[in-house]
């Protein structure tokens, strides 16, 4: 009798990225970072987590409504099937702590056995030791960090004291921030004038239709 061989290869571990942000608004720097992560980490999917109540930003200023920020992300990612809009922070109450999101997503049956990556720009990597339950977060995800504003991924003193898994993402510099975009729009720039270098066309159309970031009031719907 011939020896039996198994035709089934071992199940491949799914690689899932989380990319959180206020996305106020989402811009080409976000998209570039996400594309680099897809390619360099070999992700099966990348979930864009729109912050419901970004507690560190809410203290400083009023944000655009979460529904608008999520709608803009949906438009910015629509052409890439591995990108998904993750709404769990919008559906929760209270401050949006990333560790709570990781708890929630890793507990879902579809996540069993997956390998998780958390994407960050250098500014948030430097800031990570201010996050809620951050040492625990480091046990639960591998960090994937991209340079920003000429600053390469660099561990802060507090982070350096805690072992963590880190992938450095190679990313061409994209000198765009949501702050600079809001300032330009508030100063009277049209959203379409920011396409394609700073905003995706569909996002710019949404900004104009909703009257976001201008002093004129938004039209309903
Ligand atoms: N141009 C960029 N290059 C690299 N990383 C970026 C860039 N823009 C944003 N990121 C990263 O994307 C994540 C979400 O960023 P966020 O939504 O706060 O955008 P932002 O442009 O930093 O906004 P704001 O100017 O309002 O602070 C963060 O980890 C941030 O570091
Ligand atoms: O968990 C925290 O305490 C925490 C503190 C600051 C920022 N974050 C997350 O970091 C991501 C980027 O935040 P921001 O403020 O740069 O848009 C977003 O997903 C936030 O929810 C998370």
Automatic annotation (TrEMBL):
Manganese keyword on record: no
Keyword annotations: ATP-binding, NAD, Nucleotide-binding, Nucleotidyltransferase, Pyridine nucleotide biosynthesis, Transferase
Domain Cytidyltransferase-like: start-end pairs: 18-183
Main enzyme class: transferase
Record field: catalytic activity: nicotinate beta-D-ribonucleotide + ATP + H(+) = deamido-NAD(+) + diphosphate
GO MF entries: nucleotidyltransferase activity
Entry EC number(s): 2.7.7.18
Alphabetical list of InterPro entries matching this protein: Cyt_trans-like, NadD/NMNAT, Rossmann-like_a/b/a_fold
Pathway given in the UniProt record: Cofactor biosynthesis; NAD(+) biosynthesis; deamido-NAD(+) from nicotinate D-ribonucleotide: step 1/1
Purpose of the protein: Catalyzes the reversible adenylation of nicotinate mononucleotide (NaMN) to nicotinic acid adenine dinucleotide (NaAD).
Family from the record: Belongs to the NadD family.
This protein's name: Probable nicotinate-nucleotide adenylyltransferase
Organism from which the protein derives: Sphaerotilus microaerophilus
């Amino acid at each position: 009798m011939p020896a039996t061989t198994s035709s089934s290869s071992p199940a491949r571990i799914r690689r899932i990225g989380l990319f959180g942000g206020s996305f106020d608004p989402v811009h080409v720097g976000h998209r570039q970072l996400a594309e680099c992560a897809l390619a360099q980490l070999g992700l099966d999917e990348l979930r864009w987590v729109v912050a419901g109540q970004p507690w560190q930003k809410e203290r400083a200023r009023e944000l655009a409504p979460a529904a608008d920020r999520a709608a803009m992300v949906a438009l910015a990612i629509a052409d890439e099937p591995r990108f998904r809009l993750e709404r769990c922070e919008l559906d929760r109450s209270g401050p949006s702590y990333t560790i709570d999101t990781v708890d929630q997503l890793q507990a879902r049956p579809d996540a069993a056995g997956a390998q998780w990556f958390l994407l960050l720009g250098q500014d948030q990597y430097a800031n990570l030791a201010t996050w809620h339950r951050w040492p625990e977060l480091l046990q639960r995800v591998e960090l994937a960090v991209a340079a920003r504003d000429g600053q390469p991924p660099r561990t802060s003193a507090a982070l350096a004291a805690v072992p963590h898994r880190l992938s450095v993402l190679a990313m061409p510099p994209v000198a765009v921030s949501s702050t600079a975009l809001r300032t330009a729009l508030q100063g009277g720039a049209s959203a379409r004038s920011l396409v394609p270098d700073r905003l995706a066309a569909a996002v710019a159309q949404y900004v104009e239709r909703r009257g976001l970031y201008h002093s004129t009031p938004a039209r309903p719907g």
